[in-house]
Structure formats: C-alpha cells, structure tokens
C-alpha cells in the first residue's frame, strides 16, 4: 500500500525527530508496542518514560521490553498521563523529543477503562510545554467506543487552538471508512533568532 497507515505515519514522524540519546514519553503504554519502538529510537544513551493507569499495561510493557533487551533505558509509571509534570525529572522539561499517545482502551483488556478528555487534555498541554523545539507529539484517536468521539473532538479542538507560530499541527484520517481512527501530529517549531 502506498498510503501510510496512521501507525506508520506516527512512527515515521517520531523516528525523524527522536535520534539516539533523546528523551521520549509514551503517555499510554497499552501493550508496550510504542514504548519498545521509542526505546529502540533513543537507544541505550537515551531514556523513555511510560505511563498507564492499568497495572496490566505496565506488566505487559515490562515483559515486552525485557524480552527485546530494551528495559534498561525505560522508566514505567503505574499512573495517569496527566501526572507527567509531577513524575518526570524537572531537567527533562524542554528536552523531550517525542510524546506518543494512543487514546481509548487497552487492547485485550477492560474496554470499560478508557482515556478521558479532561486528563488527556491536561497531558497534552504538559506535553506541548515540555516538548523540545523540533519535537513531535503523536496522538492516535479512536472513535469506535463510547466516549471516543467526544475525546477525539476535544483533542482536535485543542490542537486547532494552538498558535501556528509555535506549533505545526496535522490531522490524518481515512474519510471513506466509518469511525476510522485518526492521527494528530504536532510539531513544536524552532524559535527563530532575531
């Protein structure tokens, strides 16, 4: 297929902005696929921080990282992504090259436990503030579950409100598929010197 999936687009953008030695954050661990991807991007000289409110997600991610030999450069938090500013080291502020979020519920988990607009927006505001110039925020938006459309709308409305002189925002979705997931990519612009 020539047209990239949202997962492929997210990973391409993140990889381009997250070289070895970088700091990255997975805001929703899920089954650990993005955490492992980020750990491979940053390498042993970088660091990844991961968040999830479900212990099962933390355990699955820990196992995936350990089996791949990528556990040493990752810190996992059994906590909501809206606590990023409280749990990350202060020296990471302004130095994080990538944030990845997959909203919705834990695949093969409890579908009643979903991300919520209020905590997601708080996490995204923090991410935008803590992002390094040239860094990327990737948000996969899923609307096929109760609460998903409302959260997606809240996130897109927030992204639309960002000042274009500070952030570039792109939104990708297949428009001929009902309730297709979509991808929001946000890049923090590099400040021009006067």
TrEMBL record:
Keywords assigned: Methyltransferase, Transferase
One Pfam family hit: rRNA_methylase
One GO term (biological process): methylation
Record-linked SUPFAM superfamilies: S-adenosyl-L-methionine-dependent methyltransferases (SSF53335)
Xref: InterPro entries: MnmM_MeTrfase, SAM-dependent_MTases_sf
Top-level taxon of the source organism: Bacteria
GO molecular function: methyltransferase activity
Coiled-coil annotated spans: none
The protein, known as: Class I SAM-dependent methyltransferase
Species whose genome carries this gene: Laceyella putida
């Amino acid at each position: 297929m020539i047209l990239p999936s949202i997962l492929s687009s997210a990973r391409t953008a993140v990889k381009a902005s997250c070289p070895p030695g970088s700091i990255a954050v997975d805001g929703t661990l899920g089954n650990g696929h993005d955490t492992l991807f980020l750990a491979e991007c940053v390498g042993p000289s970088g660091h990844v921080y991961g968040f999830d409110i479900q212990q099962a997600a933390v355990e699955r991610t820990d196992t995936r990282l350990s089996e791949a030999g990528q556990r040493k450069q990752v810190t996992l938090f059994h906590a909501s992504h809206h606590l990023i500013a409280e749990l990350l080291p202060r020296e990471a502020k302004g130095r994080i090259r990538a944030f990845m979020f997959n909203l919705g519920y834990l695949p093969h988990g409890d579908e009643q436990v979903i991300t919520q607009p209020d905590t997601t927006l708080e996490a995204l505001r923090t991410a935008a503030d803590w992002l390094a110039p040239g860094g990327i925020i990737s948000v996969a938006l899923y609307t096929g579950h109760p609460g998903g459309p409302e959260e997606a709308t809240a996130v897109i409305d927030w992204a639309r409100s960002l000042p274009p002189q500070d952030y570039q925002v792109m939104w990708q979705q297949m428009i001929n598929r009902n309730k297709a997931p979509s991808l929001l990519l946000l890049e923090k612009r590099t400040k021009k010197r006067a």
